[in-house]
Amino acid sequence: MTTSSSAPGKVYLFGEHAVVYGEPAIPCAIDRRASATVERRADDRLRVHAPALSLDGLTVDFGDDVAVDVDDERVAAALGYVRGAVESAREYVDGTAGLTVTVESDLPLGAGLGSSAAVVVATIHAAVRELGGDIDDDELAERAYRVEADVQDGEASRADTFCATVGGAVRVEGEDRRRLDAPDLPLVVGYDGRSGNTGELVAGVRQRREEYGFAADTVEAIGDVVREGEGALSDNDTETLGELMDFDHGLLCALGVSARSLDEMVWAAREGGAAGAKLTGAGGGGCVVALDDGGDARRALELSPVCETAFDAALDREGVRAE
Ligand code: MEV
User: Fold this and answer.
1) Collapsing DSSP states into helix, strand and coil, what is residue 181?
2) Would the CB of 280 count as within 6 Å of ligand 1?
């Protein structure tokens, strides 16, 4: 028997990085998913098969002390998330069973679309069910958060994993997590083909925040943008939402987490008529998200020399699901 689950990726409308310090954030699940298929084995080993995570296809067999040895740092990190997720599921169901896990994903790795959270949530969900257990959203989101925090040396908030678990637009502030009523948002994503290291980028912001009072103020200002944005979201006020996304991007730039390619894509989307645009996720390279109500931001992104792919994204109101 095999058991499969999938979970959505996400973009941040507002609030990444500041959420790590207790400010609110609003991530939104999008209609691109990661899935995990899990099968119980006769032995006690963990085998991870991850064709979507590398061009060549990739299979790693974990024994008790087998180190991951792959060239691509992003793939190695992704395997760390899968391993952590399986261990969490085994601990929850009280099993030591061997498992074969196949991970597939429409989400680029480490690019700000929540690939690791989606992979962890889908893997725990599928593994618990394959081992005969049952898990509710609260327990799943909490376990997925602990796996992310572990792999990222403690540098994580609950935002990505909660959003991947419940779907839709969510608001996370410290331990307070809830779904928001949100309209369908005209989202466009641009991807530069690169990635950032979330743990390192979060640590960089932490250092700046400790060194400079104005960096700490910048983190608080992002929280103010999010509070303002929440009102604009419930009023479905695209113009204000866009303006606030631009503001948020400026503050993230000030905190040192943008990149030239991200800034160029943000400007391309704005010049293509987007109401606003910003980087999404940890930054350093990866994706931008634009709000494009009637403009041609996707085309403008496609024409940008730094943009590898651009696509329209819909808010996905469904979180983790059995496949
Ligand atoms: C990464 O997708 C979002 C960050 O805020 C880190 C986190 O919340 O865990 C940068």
Assistant:
1) coil
2) no
SS3 69: coil
Q: What angle do CA 232, 283, 53 make, to 5 degrees?
A: 115
Give the pair of three-digit tokens for residue 102: 């196949």
- Active-site positions read 160
DSSP codes joined into one string, 88-108: HHHHHHT----EEEEEEESS-
Amino acid at residue number 50: A
The answer, yes or no, to whether residue 47 has pLDDT greater than 60, is: yes
**What is the reported pLDDT for 218?**
98
Distance 158 CA to ligand 1 centre (A): 8
For residues 266 and 67, the model is more confident at 266
- CA–CA dist 239, 231 (Å, integer): 12
| Contact criterion met (CB below 8 Å) for 27 and 230 | no
Answer yes or no: is the C-beta of 163 below 6 A from any ligand 1 atom.
no
**Ligand 1 contact via 88 beta carbon (within 6 Å):** no
pLDDT tens digits, residue range 269-289? Answer: 999 999 999 999 999 999 999
Convert the pLDDT of each residue in 136-172 to its tens digit: 999 999 999 999 999 888 878 899 999 999 999 999 9
What is the residue-averaged pLDDT of the chain?
Answer: 92
Phi-psi group of 293: left, alpha or beta (phi > 0 → left; psi -120 to 50 → alpha; rest → beta): beta
* 285: its two tokens: 């390279």
